[in-house]
Automatic annotation (TrEMBL):
Pfam family, one: Cutinase
Keywords: Disulfide bond, Hydrolase
Domain of life: Eukaryota
GO molecular function, one term: carboxylic ester hydrolase activity
InterPro entries, alphabetized: AB_hydrolase_fold (IPR029058), Cutinase/axe (IPR000675)
Keyword presence, Oxidoreductase: no
Protein name: Carbohydrate esterase family 5 protein
Native organism taxonomy: Eukaryota, Fungi, Dikarya, Ascomycota, Pezizomycotina
Gene3D superfamilies: alpha/beta hydrolase
Species for this entry: Plenodomus tracheiphilus IPT5
Amino acid sequence: LVPLLAVGSSAPVDEVKRAASSSCPSYTIINTRGTGEQQGPSAGFRTINSRVTSALSGGKIYNTVYPAGFNQNSAAGTQDIINRITSMLRSNSKECFILEGYSQGAAATVNALPSLTGAKFEAVKGVFLIGNPEHKSGLTCNVDNNGGTTTRNVNGLSAFGEGGIPSNWVSKTLEVCIYGDGVCDTTHGQGINRQNLQYPNDSPTQNLGTQYITKQLGGSS
């Protein structure tokens, strides 16, 4: 649900430096891009991830492999997230993870959560979502881009049925929805609009994400 953007690396993994947080000396940020973004890092998280990996070494960034097509079928992304966590924990049972998703990528991430149980649940230290079409009203993890509550009690385009963030994940999730973003806030906006495209260049969103992820990884926010 973002326009086609020219992004740098097409490889799914970008290696970063090593070792810093005592609780998460090795961590992987799984970054799931939005509709129309080329395979690689999402524009929504580039600034955040650059800041986090500069402050806390030991990090790797994995760019979820899936089409991010306009048909909104994100199932391949969901499965890739699950597979990546499973395979990495086989190699290092102490690996920490942060999950990020922008728009369709947020939906792919949310849909992976019910399958991340046991050791996989414990390994994921935080989930950071922006412009989530599965945004559900009333969750305490719902904030606007200033950390406020103006979008706490609104629903996204796909907020129906039993989907959305499972209750046991709410405490380790921060979901940012800008007021009027028609993808996550259908009360005050309609469809893919200016607000939905605002996150990559929105300083409050980028600051919230940097602080939240650094804290969840055991660093100083």
